[in-house]
Design goal:
heterotrimer; A mainly alpha; B mainly alpha; C alpha+beta; A: mainly alpha; Four Helix Bundle (Hemerythrin (Met), subunit A); 6 helices; elongated; B: mainly alpha; Cytochrome C Oxidase, Chain A; globular
Chain lengths: ~200, ~600, ~350
């Protein structure tokens, strides 16, 4: 990341590196982005003219959403946040091998989550819920789709950090780059918790 | 001075040579100039669009343009003036002046800053290319669904709208992140938040509005795009959708957007008035706090654009109340400005005239806004020329006059020369008269039942006279802009040299040469008040001695100038390719993504940053 | 003459010219929002007048103080005089924060009262009209009275009317300025408005939400008449139109059925029953045609039928085959006979 930003961290007005403050601001805007998607989902709950529906009807009798399976994938994503914390800790301690390991683990769990999403989306499609089938299809796929896209970008980011760490190492002074990736990853995780609660757990 | 000083002149030489130096610049001052020149070019285009509109409406059953062309003209006029003129003119000032006013050498993210310009240019061109292919957006600048659905707008016109705005939104947000960090994190020692110039504060509020409001329209536009491209039903009532969803999302963005448009001008006025009254801004903390409150409350009033949609009396009453509440901090600012000049020694330079004109015109625009805030009254005024009058009083009488104040005030700093005052005053008076002749009658037209967005009307409607008056006014307005152009270019070559401090200013930008050197400040100043230069100039002998002692005790400054970079323009190009892909095929989209990814990696690895 | 005097005179001349130009049109304001003829309009006018005078007062006071300050404290541009450096006055600032808030209360109270007053549900004896906005005409149906018509709305003076607004295409807005405020017409949602017209007359309405190419030409009329006339109108509308008498009109009746009009236009008592386009059963009795933009004359009818898109850009009235002058004349005679 930018050497200037890190080297002059002590010279900044707030005592924090530019990148960190900038990234928190970016996360603020992402809150409004996901907030709008979620608010739309919530306002369109129960408005679908035709099924499939999330919480009543086929194929599970309790609607098309598979809570048990999605609970597992949610747990995987949560665990990945733990891996991310461990990756940052390792980097800040200067432990290059552990950093690589935990970065890889985080990305790996992220990929498993994405795998579950892919499975879920194909299951839904086979059970008749497409993007355009009804309002539930529209709001669900756009919301979770954009979240999935964010996770994918995160996985790419983590793997890039992994490669950089393997080739030239990420020294303690540059651990900010891992910290920022961590902020992003935790944010994406928190958004999923909100989505999981509002979409999956709370019935219509 | 350290050995660094010897290295600086050479850097300066290299940095300023030729077109490539402009394309790869990461110098905030140059980015500011790029924004300003581009914005002004679009001001001329948007103005032409307005003149054609006014010519068509000069008399009943006009035949200057067809209905379809007219509908595209009023759509593009609004989009141009809002997104391609007022916002980037504000950005020009943010870019040029913010680092100078907070005592910084650059912005927090110089390349991101340059990128925001190139993406802005991409968006501006994208939107206007629609004219060249014959399908400019023609659904009004707020593009209400379901008129924008594929069924009712089958051509690409709405697609240019969607992607043009998405690109422009990305540009604004990038600039937003940059300026928030710059203002919060790069203030010179001693410059606490409450010592920031009010222009900087207003910019900070604006940037927060940008980064929080634009994501909402991003989502709204994504829904529209998905409806049009993939057959979703976000705005389709027959599928159970709420016909008002688009309006809610749009105005949740749209209302903060209008504060984004006015707050920079208010910030400029808050700088100009004290300088030319030789007095400090009256109640600066109140003015700052009012600006912050306006920004905050601005998120709670959006449905006052929807009083005619039948939200129900409770919602109407609630939004009416919040809208009236916002009038309070606005009024406070006006009173504080008047108290600033009261008891001062007022020098009526062109910049000052514009700042005073702003207040006079904004009062009118604000009062018509208070009328709109009452739903029963708004049921008559909404979608009529009364709203058009209100809009133009706050945007022309407000934003544009305020921005001209900024231009006359800061042109000397940017160019080292003064704009001609006589031409400036001619321009000002012509504009003041012309804008009132053009827009005041529109109140009468609205009261007389003339709806907005109509390409023609009939002689029996009773609207002939005022429409003709408004058209005549609009031509004079056009003339006044020509005078400005002449003044601008002539003064670049032959204007009186300005020196560092032509106006006896109080803030940091006047302490450095005009135009500033590449690194802005040779030594970063240490600030002890909100009027740092004033303190230096008018301090007592004892205070001056103290300041000199403190200066001697400081060490040398480390000056780091970020080198130029072409990754911003490459990344912007990648973005253009991605968005163009929606008009061709998915391979083009993918190519765009790959270019963006490659540019991002190269950017991260670029040496020297 | 000094520069200032010259400038002032120029201003005066300009202002005078403007006033004169505008004055020429002062004669009639057929779509004025400030000369209401219904209870709804009066309720709005009442609030408007209060707010208007507050605004005028605030304008005069604040602009005067501004102008006084400018004139009183101005100095030459080259001056470097420094006045007393006043930074603020907290008590004063608090006072002028509270003052606008208080004034706004005076505006908010009648506002909120009127919001609820005009939102009150329609009384039992209200005449109900279902209004449908199309691109680009208006459909009016009186469900309780069995009337279906287009572009010209009749109401009895003194009786409440409830319009239910709906669209199955884009957004429109129903606005008769002299009767009162507007209400949006949208798909998926029915908006309602209640008003009682107190003065008989012909009032003009217009769509007030941009709805596409011919938004500007989507007009309609409201005829407010005494109850007896209204009842007579209802009876005539309910019944099929008189059969054509003269030869030309009879010819037109046949042309109507073969020229393609049957695809969109309903004429009671004939095989033409489609409700896609405006109902033409009694079009001959309407004051205007093509949704309120042309006077109902033979010349205008001919012009409209000859080339609808030339009159109304992108009009959806597509006539399948080219009609001869003769056929158009016959159609016009027939349509004019549909009283």
């Amino acid at each position: 990341m930018s050497t200037a930003a890190v080297a002059h961290a002590e010279e900044t007005s707030l005592g924090q590196p530019h990148l960190k403050i900038g990234f928190w601001t970016f996360l603020g805007s992402e809150c409004f982005f996901f907030g709008s998607l979620i608010a739309t989902y919530m306002s369109y709950r129960g408005h679908s003219v035709a099924g499939p529906f999330p919480h009543h009807g086929p194929p599970h009798g309790t609607g098309i959403l598979n809570i048990p399976v999605t609970s597992i994938s949610s747990f995987v994503l949560l665990t990945s946040s733990l891996a991310m914390v461990l990756a940052l800790a390792a980097c800040q301690k200067g432990d290059r091998k552990k950093t690589s390991f935990w970065l890889c683990m985080t990305a790996f769990f992220g990929l498993i989550f994405l795998g579950f999403q892919a499975y879920e989306f194909t299951e839904f499609y086979h059970n008749g819920l497409s993007l355009t089938k009804n309002l539930f299809g529209c709001t669900f796929f756009v919301l979770t789709g954009f979240h999935g896209a964010h996770v994918s970008i995160g996985v790419l980011w983590l793997l890039s950090l992994f490669v950089i760490n393997q080739r030239e190492g990420i020294p303690v002074e540059k651990s900010l780059s891992v910290e920022i990736a961590g902020l992003y990853w935790h944010f994406v995780d928190i958004v999923w918790i909100v989505i999981f609660t509002l979409v999956y757990l709370i019935p219509d | 001075m350290s050995t660094k000083a010897a290295a600086l002149p050479r850097l300066q030489e290299e940095a300023y040579k030729g077109a490539w130096s402009w394309i790869t610049t990461v110098d905030h001052k140059r980015v500011g100039i790029l924004y300003g020149m581009t914005a002004f070019s679009f001001f001329l285009i948007g103005g032409m669009e307005a003149l054609i509109i006014r010519t068509q409406l000069a008399g009943p059953e006009g035949t200057v343009v067809t209905a379809g062309t007219f509908n595209a003209l009023f759509t593009m006029h609004a989009l141009t003036m809002i997104f391609l003129v007022i916002m980037p003119l504000g950005a020009a000032f943010f870019n040029y002046m913010i680092p100078l006013m907070i005592g910084a050498r650059d912005v927090a993210f110089p390349r991101l800053n340059a990128l925001s310009y190139w993406v802005f240019l991409t968006g501006a061109l994208f939107l206007n290319v629609s004219f060249l292919v014959g399908t400019p957006p023609d659904v009004g600048w707020f593009a209400y669904a379901p008129l924008t659905a594929k069924a009712f707008s089958p051509t690409h016109a709405v697609d240019y709208y969607i992607f043009g705005l998405q690109i422009l939104g990305i540009s604004s947000m990038m600039a937003g992140f940059n300026f928030i960090v710059t203002i919060l994190n790069m203030r010179t020692p001693g410059m606490t938040m409450m010592r920031l110039p009010v222009f900087v504060w207003m910019t900070l509020v604006v940037q927060f509005l940008v980064v929080l409001a634009f994501p909402i329209i991003t989502v709204g536009l994504i829904f529209l795009q998905f409806d049009r491209f993939f057959g979703t039903h976000f705005y389709e009532a027959s599928a159970g959708a709420d016909p008002l969803l688009w309006q809610h999302l749009f105005w949740l963005f749209g209302h903060p957007e209008v504060y984004i448009l006015i707050l920079p001008a208010m910030g400029i006025v808050s700088e100009v008035l004290p300088t030319f009254s030789h007095k400090p801004l009256f109640g600066a903390p109140f003015v700052i706090f009012s600006g912050v409150l306006i920004g905050f409350l601005g998120f709670g009033v959006w449905s006052h654009h929807m009083f005619t949609t039948g939200l129900g009396p409770v919602a109407d009453a609630a939004f009416s109340t919040t809208t009236m509440m916002i009038a309070v901090p606005t009024a406070v600012k006006i009173f504080n400005w008047i108290a600033t000049i009261w008891g001062g020694r007022i020098r009526l330079t062109t910049a000052m005239l514009y700042a005073l004109g702003f207040i006079a015109m904004f009062i009118i625009g604000g009062l018509s806004g208070v009328m709109h805030a009452s739903p029963p009254v708004d049921l008559q005024q909404q979608d009529s020329y009364f709203v058009v009058a209100h809009i133009h009083y706050v945007l022309f009488g407000g934003s544009i006059l305020g921005l001209f104040a900024g231009i006359f005030y800061w042109y000397p700093k940017m160019t080292g020369r003064l704009l001609d005052e006589r031409l400036g005053k001619l321009q000002f008076w012509l504009q003041m008269i012309a804008l009132n002749v053009t827009f005041f009658p529109m109140h009468f037209l609205g009261v007389d039942g003339m709806p907005r967005r109509i390409y023609t009307y009939y002689g029996t409607d009773g609207w002939n006279g005022w429409n003709m008056v408004a058209t005549i006014g609009s031509y004079v307005l056009g003339l006044s802009v020509m005078i400005f152009l002449f003044n601008f270019f002539r003064s670049l070559r032959a204007g009186k040299p300005a020196g560092a401090d032509p106006w006896d200013g109080a803030t940091l930008e006047w302490t450095i040469p005009s135009p500033p050197p590449l690194y802005n400040f040779a030594r970063l100043p240490v600030v002890t008040s909100a009027r740092p230069f004033w303190e230096v100039k008018y301090a007592s002998a004892a205070q001056k001695a103290q300041m000199e002692k403190a200066e001697k005790e400081r060490g040398a400054d480390h000056i780091h100038i970020p080198p130029p970079s072409y990754w911003p323009i490459v990344l912007a190009f990648g973005m253009a390719v991605f968005f163009a892909g929606w008009f061709f095929n998915y391979y083009v989209n993918v190519a765009g993504v790959l270019i963006v990814l490659a540019a991002t990696f190269a950017w991260v690895y670029e040496p020297g940053h | 003459m000094s520069i200032r005097r010259r400038r002032f005179l120029a201003l005066l001349v300009l202002a005078g010219t403007c006033a004169a130009l505008a004055g020429c049109e002062m004669v009639s304001h057929p779509r004025s929002t400030i000369s209401p003829v219904s209870d709804f309009g009066w309720a709005i006018q009442d609030v408007y007048e209060q707010i208007f005078w507050w605004c005028v007062g605030i304008f005069v006071v604040v602009e005067s103080v501004l102008l006084i300050a400018i004139f009183r404290f101005r100095v030459r541009e080259e001056s470097h005089e420094r006045p007393e450096q006043v930074h603020g006055h907290t008590k004063l600032e608090i006072a002028w924060t509270i003052l606008p808030a208080v004034i706004l209360v005076f505006i908010a109270v009648p506002t909120i009262r009127t919001i609820f007053a005009v939102a009150a549900p329609a009384p039992q004896d209200a005449i109900r009209v279902n209004v449908t906005g199309e691109q680009w005409f208006w459909r009016f149906e009186y469900p309780d009275l069995g009337v279906l018509t287009a572009n010209e709305l009749h109401v009895p003076v003194g009786r409440p009317v409830e319009v239910s607004l709906h669209s199955n295409n884009v957004l429109h807005a129903f606005w008769i300025p002299r009767v009162g405020g507007k209400r949006d017409v949208m798909p998926g949602r029915t908006n309602r408005q209640v008003f009682t017209v107190q003065k008989p007359g012909l009032y003009h309405g217009q769509c007030a939400e941009f709805c596409g190419a011919s938004h500007a030409l989507m007009r309609f009329d409201l005829v407010a008449e005494d109850p007896t006339s209204f009842d007579r109108w209802v009876e005539r509308q309910k019944a099929p139109p008189p059969a054509p008498v003269d030869a030309r009109a009879k010819e037109g009746a046949t042309t109507f059925l073969t020229a393609g009009c049957i695809a969109c236009h309903r004429i009671q008592g004939t095989p033409s029953q489609s409700t896609i386009g405006p109902d033409l059963s009694h079009v001959g009795s309407r004051a205007r045609i093509a949704s309120g933009i042309l006077d109902n004359t033979p010349e205008n009818l001919a012009r409209w039928i000859h080339d609808p898109q030339a009159v109304k850009p992108e009009a959806k009235m597509i006539i399948p085959k080219k009609l001869s002058e003769n056929e158009i004349e016959a159609l016009v005679a027939y349509l004019q006979s549909l009283q």
